[in-house]
Amino acid sequence: MHVNARASPGPILTAVALPSGAVMSVRALDVIRDEHRALAGMLASLRTLVRDWSRHGTAPDLGVLRAMVFYIHAYPERLHHPKETGLLFAAMRARGVAIGDLLDRLDAEHAHGDEAVMRLAMGLLEVEQLGATRLAAFADSVERYVDAYLRHMELEEREVLPLAERVLAEDDWKRIDTAFAGNRDPLTGHPPEETFRALFTRIVSAAPAPVGLGPPLRQSGAT
Fold it and tell me: How far is CA 98 from the centre of its chain?
């Protein structure tokens, strides 16, 4: 599975240094996999913070939780998914691939992504405003959300991306690569836009590794 959040130690939010005068050749599939890895790390960190809160009473910085949820809304939902649906999946359908039903399922999940993020945000707001009686329900919603998102990315990496490499033509890739080259997700090494600089500084300062500089993630299944 290519989206294992434990695959790489240390913070994800790091700068990419190129030799002077070097030109980075961007491949859409590399961008997609990098963004999957970054998002998997973010989701694992989010789940760890909420698990510790729910199971051990270790209240996290709620501003960091809000920042994490906002990141999912601002980057994967607004940049990553529309390009997968509108460019990559559309090109594969035009080439007559036999996984149309799977692409339809993934597209439907993309379409409902913002709604799912807003439910998380509202669940967190309920805990903040109404107290600990809402925490168990919020923690359960985070578990379901993270599990569903990881399954979604695993399907894309196992079934969709290898097939795309085999069936799409050079002209397809020129359009797709150009579009994904414009993605500037800070969790894949790009400097954050000025508007979002404080947001990502907060995330990287407090989030658990591998996303940030906080304590490393607990082992899976730890209580």
Answer: 27
Beta bridge partners of 216: 209
Neighbours of 118 (CB within 10 A): 12
Is 15 in contact with 191 (CB distance < 8 Å)?
Answer: yes
Q: Which domains does the chain have, with CATH numbers?
A: 28-216 (1.20.120.520)
Contacts of 210 (CB under 8 A, 6+ apart): 5, 6, 8, 9, 10, 11, 12, 41, 44, 45, 216, 217
Query: Residue 77 CA to chain centroid, in angstroms?
Result: 9
Of 146, 183, 163, which Cα lies nearest the Cα of 27? 183
pLDDT tens digits for 114-171?
999 999 999 999 999 999 999 999 999 999 999 999 999 999 999 999 999 999 999 9
Pure H helices in 25-158: 28-56, 62-74, 81-83, 90-94, 100-111, 113-130, 135-155
Q: Report if pTM > 0.90.
A: no
CA distance 88 to 80: 11
Beta bridge partners of 208: 214
Residue 180 token pair:
């994904």
Which 3 state secondary structure label does DSSP give 155?
Answer: helix
pLDDT tens-digit series, residues 60-73: 889 889 999 998 99
Nearest by Cα to 93 from 80, 75, 106, 79: 106
